[in-house]
Amino acid sequence: MEGDSKEVELRSTITCPSCGHRKTETMPTDACQFFYECEHCKKMLRPKQGDCCVFCSYGSVQCPPKQQGEACC
What angle do CA 8, 58, 3 make, to 5 degrees? Predict the structure, then answer.
């Protein structure tokens, strides 16, 4: 049915839990991103326990597979 498919947002703003720095990034559609280095404080971010990627843990938008209700990587 037309209008039933949800459009996937590919941009997410990651907020560093250490320094609060925010940066909008384009999420990969073919892989999960397990590591992300904050460009401000250089802390290496990893997903929180139970999350599949850094976007699900620290992003303003969950990763594309989660947005579509699918299992993540």
Answer: 15
- pLDDT: which is higher, 58 or 31: 58
Domain ranges of the chain: 12-67
Which two tokens mark 15?
A: 């907020």
Provide the residue type at 51 as one letter. D
Give the pLDDT mean for 4-28.
92
Q: What is the DSSP letter of 59?
A: B
CB-side neighbour CA atoms (13 Å) of 32: 17
Q: What is the pTM of this model?
A: 0.85
For residue 62, which phi and psi values (nearest 5 degrees)? -70, 165
